[in-house]
Design brief:
Layout: E1 7-11, H1 13-16, H2 26-35, E2 40-44, H3 55-65, E3 68-74, H4 86-100, E4 107-111, H5 121-142, E5 146-149, H6 161-168, E6 176-177, H7 181-186, H8 191-197, E7 205-207, E8 209-210, E9 216-217, H9 226-234, E10 242-245, H10 250-254, H11 256-269
Parallel strand pairs: 1-2, 1-10, 2-3, 3-4, 4-5, 5-6, 7-10
Antiparallel strand pairs: 8-9
Helix pairs in contact: 4-5, 8-9
Length: about 270
């Protein structure tokens, strides 16, 4: 079997954390990621800005920087778990699937509820599964792979292993997953066991680090066993080879450019 080529990408949420403190352009962000030595970018609906209606222009910026679009990531105020929002969530999904379809091999990633409304959790799992299943169908029709990205923030739908089991048993086999090491660890899960159990759904990986209390740390400074993560991902039949670094530590919040450059050096020290 041919050895899969591991590639290192960067997620733009690291700059999104700055809020109004981020005053640069998308071109600035892309140049920073390229100069740090990354091969690809995962862009969010927030950071894509006015290029949301100009995927051709965005493609030119990436091409000039020598970067691939790995994935387009977006969320919804519904957390994808409110039945009344199903139609609008799927309409938004189609918008971003059509955007991503212009980029060879780019995926679309749907987040999970980070703050949920009150209500029956089983019904919310059912609602989320319907969104994720139908979103995957929309992607399939356009030739775009769709994957879900669970979060571990306060009152989230998908945090613990039990939460993962509940959602995955409701999902069609073709629905992909972006395991996020930081969120899995913050959910008090056995990271490698969870990744191994659901390896058939893995499409690419978010690498993040936390300490034993769940506080975000720079990559390599916490408890994430990156070597084991990579070995597990490589055993997944649909893993595309992308490791996307998404930095959320205090270091990144104060100086995202320096943080992403340091993380790229950390990956080089591991041979990637």
């Amino acid at each position: 079997m041919m050895k899969l080529n591991i590639q290192i990408g960067c997620q733009t949420f690291t700059w999104e954390m700055l809020g109004d403190g981020w005053t640069g352009s998308l071109e600035d962000l892309v140049d920073t990621i390229s100069q740090a030595g990354y091969s690809g970018i995962e862009i969010t609906d927030t950071m894509v800005g006015h290029f949301a209606n100009n995927n051709t222009g965005f493609a030119k910026i990436l091409a000039n920087a020598g970067l691939d679009l790995i994935s387009f990531a977006f969320g919804s105020s519904s957390g994808f778990c409110e039945p009344d929002a199903l139609a609008s969530d799927l309409e938004m999904t189609k918008t971003w699937v059509d955007f991503a379809a212009a980029f060879p091999s780019a995926l679309v990633s749907l987040g999970s509820a980070t703050i949920m409304s009150e209500g029956n959790r089983a019904e919310k799992f059912d609602a989320a599964a319907e969104v994720y299943n139908r979103a995957t169908e929309i992607g399939h029709d356009a030739g775009v792979t769709v994957a879900i990205h669970p979060s571990s923030h306060t009152n989230t739908l998908l945090s613990s292993r039990e939460d993962y089991d509940e959602i995955f048993k409701r999902l069609d086999p073709g629905v992909g997953w972006v395991p996020d090491t930081g969120h899995i660890l913050r959910g008090k899960q056995n990271m490698i066991d969870t990744m191994s159990t659901y390896r058939a759904r893995i499409r690419y990986v978010h690498l993040k680090d936390v300490d034993a209390s769940g506080s975000w740390q720079m990559l390599g400074d916490g408890i994430c066993d990156m070597t084991a993560v990579i070995e597990t991902a490589l055993s997944a039949p649909e893993f595309n080879g992308w490791l996307v670094i998404e930095e959320e530590s205090k270091d990144a919040a104060s100086n995202p450019n320096a943080a992403v450059a340091r993380n790229r050096e950390t990956m080089r020290s591991l041979g990637y």
